[in-house]
Write a structure and sequence with these properties.
By secondary structure, the protein is α/β, with parallel strands linked by helices. It has 2 domains: 283 residues, 3-Layer(bba) Sandwich (FAD/NAD(P)-binding domain); 201 residues, FAD/NAD(P)-binding domain, CATH 3.50.50.60. It has 17 helices and 24 strands. Strands 3-2-1-7-24 form a 5-stranded parallel beta sheet, with helices on one face. The N and C termini lie close together (11 Å).
Length: 499
C-alpha cells in the first residue's frame, strides 16, 4: 500500500523504517528542513538533553554511539536520528520542508494537501508528536510590553544564549525544559528568574550522588511501584500487603532529593510527597540548576504566576501575582505543549476525541471509528523510541490483517477504561491521553500481546531489577516481518488491505 506518515521525528522515522521493510510505499512529511521532531535544529533550545539515558532512549536495533554522553544533547540526538535514516534507507521517503495543510478521507484512502501539492494515499499515520505545539500563556499588557522592546517566546524558539545576553530574563515554568534552559541562560543574562506556578519533584540523575536513577525508575520494579489498571504477580503484593514498603521506597527518593539538593535551605521543597506528585510529572534534575539557585545566578519565584506585563520607567517588566514587579527584557515560556491535528477535518476530530478532549486511541495507536488512520508517538514515555518502534510493528501487522482485534465496542470500552484510570494515576496530566508515563512497559506488553510476540522470560525477569534494555527487543521486528511475508506466500491471490 501507499502510506503517508506525517512527522519525521522518532515515531515517524521508525514507522517509515518498519513499513518500508514490510514492502509498503511510504512518504514521510515534515514541515522542518531536517529530521528529528522535537530534536530538530529548528526547535532545540540551549541546555536541551534527553531525560532518559542514551541506553534507554534508543531503538532496539540501533544503539546510540558509544562516544555519546549518558544524557545526550539535543544536537547529538538529532545526529543519531539522521544516522538512523541513512542506515535504514529512509531518505528517498522523506518530504522535508513540506507542510501538510489537510488530510481528507477520499476513495477509501486519504488525500493530503501540502504547500507543495497534493497526493492520494491508501493509509495515513499521524506521527506529528505529543509535543508539537507550544502552549503559550496569554499575558495581559503584552502589546505595550513588546512595543517597549520586550520579547515573549516559547523555549523552542530560543536557539542561542546570545538572545539573552545582558538581558533580564524570566523563565515561566518549572518542568525539565524550564530548568534546562535556565542554566545556560544564567551564564549570559543580567538576571534569570524562574516563575514557578507549582514546584515539582526533581529526581537526581545519581541518587545520593551514587545510584543512577535508572536503577530505580527505569526498571520493571520501578514501574510496578505505581498502581496499574491490571495488577499481576509481584504487583499484587506491592499494592496490597507490601504497600507500606512500596510507599517508603518511593518517598525515600524524595527525602534524598531534599537533602542532596538542599531544598529546605533554598525553600524549594515541593508540597505533598513524591509518591503523589511524581506520577504526574517525573522530572530529572537539570545538572547545575540548584547550584545556580544557591549561588544567586537563578532566582526561583515559587507558587507564583505573572499577573500582567507592563513597562516601568521605559523598562519592559512583569508584575507577579504577589505584586512584585521584575524587569523582563525576555520571557521564555516553558509551559508545556498542546496536542493538535489541525490537518484533520472536524468530522474526524469528533471521532478522535472523547467528550473531554482526550485522544481515544486503542493501544495509543488506533481510532475506533476512523478506518485507515493510525497514530504513533502518542505514547510518550521513558522509552519513547522503543514504544514507538513496537507501535510501528502493530501498525504493520494491522495493515496486513494479522491482528485478531476485539470488536469496536470492546475496544471503545477498553479505551474509556484506560483514560479513566490515567485520570487518577496521572492526576489528569497525561497530555490528553497521549502520555503513558509511568507505564511505559505496560504499554509495550499490551501491544506485543496483540501481536503474539514477546522477549524471553529470563530477560524480562532481569528487567525487574536492572534497567530495561531496548536491545533486548531487537529480534521482534524481523520475527514479525517473516510472519507477514509467510502470510503473503500462503495467500498469493488475496490482497488484504487491513486497517
Amino acid at each position: 500500500m501507499k502510506i503517508a506518515v506525517i512527522g519525521a521525528g522518532v515515531a515517524g522515522l521508525t514507522t517509515a523504517k518498519v513499513l518500508l521493510q514490510a514492502g509498503h510505499e511510504v512518504e514521510v512529511f515534515d514541515k522542518t528542513s531536517d529530521v528529528g521532531g522535537v530534536w530538530s535544529q529548528s526547535r532545540r533550545y540551549p541546555g536541551l538533553t534527553t531525560q532518559s539515558p542514551s541506553a534507554q532512549y534508543s531503538f532496539s536495533d540501533f544503539p546510540m554511539p558509544k562516544g555519546f554522553p549518558e544524557w545526550p544533547t539535543g544536537a547529538q540526538v538529532q545526529e543519531y536520528l539522521a544516522s538512523y535514516v541513512t542506515r535504514n534507507g529512509i531518505e528517498p521517503a522523506l518530504r522535508l520542508s513540506t507542510n501538510v495543510t489537510s488530510a481528507l478521507r477520499a476513495d477509501g484512502g486519504w488525500t493530503l494537501e501540502t504547500d507543495r501539492g497534493s497526493a492520494h494515499f491508501d493509509r495515513l499515520v499521524v506521527a506529528n508528536g505529543v509535543f508539537c505545539e507550544p502552549a503559550m500563556p496569554r499575558f495581559e499588557g503584552v502589546d505595550e510590553f513588546r512595543a517597549a522592546g520586550g520579547k515573549v517566546l516559547p523555549a523552542t524558539e530560543l536557539h542561542d544564549v546570545d538572545q539573552a545576553h545582558d538581558r533580564h530574563v524570566l523563565v515561566v515554568g518549572y518542568g525539565k525544559t524550564a530548568c534546562d534552559v535556565a542554566v545556560p541562560l544564567s551564564a549570559a543574562a543580567a538576571s534569570v528568574d524562574v516563575i514557578a506556578r507549582q514546584l515539582l519533584w526533581k529526581v537526581p540523575r545519581r541518587i545520593a550522588g551514587v545510584l543512577n536513577f535508572k536503577m530505580l525508575l527505569l526498571t520493571r520494579m520501578g514501574e510496578a511501584l505505581f498502581r496499574y489498571l491490571h495488577l499481576r504477580g509481584m504487583e499484587k503484593f506491592l499494592h496490597g500487603p507490601g504497600d507500606g514498603l512500596r510507599r517508603r521506597m518511593l518517598n525515600s527518593v524524595g527525602s534524598v532529593s531534599i537533602r542532596q539538593f538542599k531544598l529546605k535551605r533554598l525553600d524549594l521543597v515541593p508540597r505533598g510527597e513524591m509518591e503523589d506528585i511524581v506520577k504526574g510529572a517525573i522530572g530529572l534534575a537539570t545538572e547545575g540548576f540548584f547550584e545556580a539557585v544557591a549561588d544567586g545566578r537563578i532566582t526561583v519565584r515559587r507558587d507564583l504566576t505573572i499577573r500582567r506585563l507592563t513597562v516601568l520607567n521605559g523598562q519592559p517588566s512583569a508584575e507577579l501575582a504577589d505584586g512584585n514587579v521584575l524587569p523582563a527584557d525576555l520571557i521564555v515560556c516553558a509551559t508545556g505543549f498542546t496536542q493538535q491535528v489541525p490537518f484533520l477535518d472536524e468530522s474526524i476530530h469528533k471521532a478522535l476525541f472523547d467528550e473531554r478532549g482526550n485522544f481515544a486511541l486503542y493501544r495509543q495507536i488506533q481510532p475506533i471509528d476512523v478506518p485507515g488512520l493510525y497514530f504513533n508517538g502518542y505514547n510518550s514515555s521513558f522509552f519513547s523510541p522503543l514504544n514507538a518502534e513496537m507501535a510501528a510493528l502493530w501498525i504493520a501487522a494491522d495493515l496486513a490483517g494479522a491482528i485478531d482485534l476485539p470488536d469496536a465496542a470492546a475496544r471503545r470500552a477498553a479505551v474509556t477504561a484506560q483514560l479513566a484510570f490515567m485520570d487518577v494515576a496521572a492526576d489528569t496530566h497525561h497530555c490528553r491521553g497521549a502520555k503513558i508515563i509511568p507505564f511505559s512497559m505496560k504499554n509495550i506488553d499490551e501491544v506485543l500481546g496483540d501481536l503474539g510476540l514477546q522477549i524471553g522470560k529470563p530477560v524480562r525477569a532481569s528487567h525487574w531489577l536492572n534497567p530495561v534494555s531496548p536491545a533486548a527487543y531487537r529480534k521482534l521486528t524481523p520475527q514479525l516481518l517473516r510472519r507477514l511475508a509467510d502470510r503473503v506466500e500462503d495467500r498469493p491471490t488475496t490482497v488484504h488491505t487491513g486497517g
